[in-house]
Amino acid sequence: MNSMTWTDDYITPTYSRVNVALEKGYGYYVYDEDGKQYLDFTAGIGVNSLGYQHKEWVAATQNQLSQLQHISNLYYTKPGAELAKKLCEKTGMKHVLFVNSGAESNEVAIKVARKYGHKKKSNKHKILTLSNSFHGRTVTTLSATGQDVFHQYFDPFTEGFDFVETNNLEDLHDKFDETVCGIMIELVQGEGGVIPLDRTFVEEIETLCEQNDCLLIIDEVQTGIGRTGKLFSYEHFELNPDIVTSAKGLGNGLPIGAALLGEKVQHVLEAGDHGSTFGGNPVVTAGANVVLDTLTDTFLNQIVANGELLKEKLCALEEVQSVSGLGLMIGVIFKNISAKEVVAKAKEEGVLFLTAKEKLRLLPPLIIDEQAIDEAVNCLKKILKVEAGVS
Hints:
Elements: H1 2-10, E1 22-26, E2 29-32, E3 37-40, H2 43-46, H3 55-65, H4 78-91, E4 95-99, H5 102-120, E5 126-130, H6 139-144, E6 161-164, H7 169-175, E7 180-185, E8 188-189, E9 195-196, H8 199-211, E10 215-219, E11 243-246, E12 257-261, H9 282-294, H10 297-315, E13 320-326, E14 329-334, H11 339-349, E15 351-352, E16 354-356, E17 359-362, H12 370-388
Parallel strand pairs: 3-15, 5-6, 5-7, 7-10, 10-11
Antiparallel strand pairs: 1-2, 2-3, 4-12, 8-9, 11-12, 13-14, 14-17, 16-17
Helix pairs in contact: 3-9, 4-9, 10-12, 11-12
């Protein structure tokens, strides 16, 4: 197939690609160049929240393409203004800055925290993140990522970050000092293995931030936009963050990032402090408006119900050791087979899964139903029976 050959020949090999060339999708299925159907439980790594060929989303983006595809942030455009208004009204945040990716939205959060800290005290610049965290692949967001495997080859890394052992209150207090301007956390660590944080740990982080005029930053790049059954996962913890970063599912497949700024920091950034040529692109934001409009309370409640059903069916499989996560962001550890082996075998059976460290990671489109859940679980059941030697 030319797409595979040309990719291998001409695209820098920074990805370990699955040997499938996908051509189109519909609903929660995708199809390769030979017409084989696959149930997609990856959603483009949590991006295609409304699945494929969602009618309203397609209509909105096509209509905007026929009018104005781009003009830059030197001018006003309606789709971006509408999206910012909806995000602020739904969250209580005050301002939004649009960029193109999760890493970029985290860069904005870091800049806001640093500027806020410097205005308070000249040495208030350090940002605490957690061990096992993942915040992006730019040099600075790699510096903020609490995994040693990413801290290779590209040094010297950006200074001013320290890592707290996840869910360790003692280490949190040991690392916190007067130089800390912000604490950035994922409430469910996605790339780190689909690990939810302990509520008491999160509450202590919020208390420390409140008592020390330090910013609470929630990285919702993977957990946000309905993935956990709430618009943002911090709602599960009843938090009041100063900054929330978002991306992935907001665009339903088109690139977007958003840094939501609360009242304390809404005026920190001024003209010239940050910029993005493509940030808030009218085509992307036209589609993102459809995503937000789709995430009604009824829709979000169905995500919760489907997540619970999926967990229940996974836990019932004898070869499953443990299941973690929230909503439709789920990690699975097996007893006698690796997650990578399951992904390879499932692909042959027509189901696409992801991994996160040693876990199988499930990030299906948010539109899945009981039929899709049964199809995915039956695929796993078949693979695990063969592995266990059960006919």
